[in-house]
Design goal:
Blueprint: E1 2-6, H1 7-20, E2 26-34, E3 37-46, H2 63-73, E4 79-88, H3 96-101, E5 107-114, E6 117-126, E7 133-136, E8 138-141
Parallel strand pairs: 1-3, 1-8, 4-5
Antiparallel strand pairs: 2-3, 2-4, 5-6, 6-7
Length: 142
């Protein structure tokens, strides 16, 4: 189980987290899956539609954004393989809230944004039993 990402895709994820700060920013990771190997190829940035007061600690992606991300992915031979979001001034580990709303198949990339600067992104996959996340190693490509 691992995820390969081009450096420019990771930089775009970081940029979205920084632009969204102090709120959580989110979107979809588009790519390919071959067994346990995943390759991120592009992102689809979405708006955090959670109510304004909750956005610094929660995100919500609208169903029409998932549909649009799938429509963007399909002609390129890609699919939605994950969701990315930022944790402003909070560790980049899944929260209990993240676990409750996650689905087992997707990669969940979480970027720590400290004082407006993206510091690190980690990827997680929810176990089929939905009780725990396993960290998914990220390999960067130039």
């Amino acid at each position: 189980m691992s995820l390969t990402l081009p450096v420019d895709i990771l930089e775009a994820i970081h940029a979205h987290g920084v632009a969204s700060y102090p709120e959580e920013g989110a979107g979809f990771l588009l790519g390919r899956v071959d067994g346990e190997q995943r390759e991120g190829v592009a992102i689809y940035v979405a708006s955090n539609t959670r109510e304004a007061a909750a956005r610094p600690r929660r995100y919500l992606l609208a169903p029409h954004d998932l549909l649009r991300a799938e429509q963007v992915a399909e002609p390129q031979g890609l699919q939605v393989i994950g969701i990315f979001h930022s944790h402003p001034d909070h560790p980049n580990r899944p929260s209990e809230f993240d676990r409750e709303w996650a689905l087992p198949w997707f990669s969940y990339l979480i970027t720590n944004v400290q004082n407006g600067a993206a510091t690190e992104t980690r990827s997680w996959r929810l176990q089929d039993e939905r009780k725990f996340f396993d960290e998914e190693p990220i390999t960067l490509q130039e």
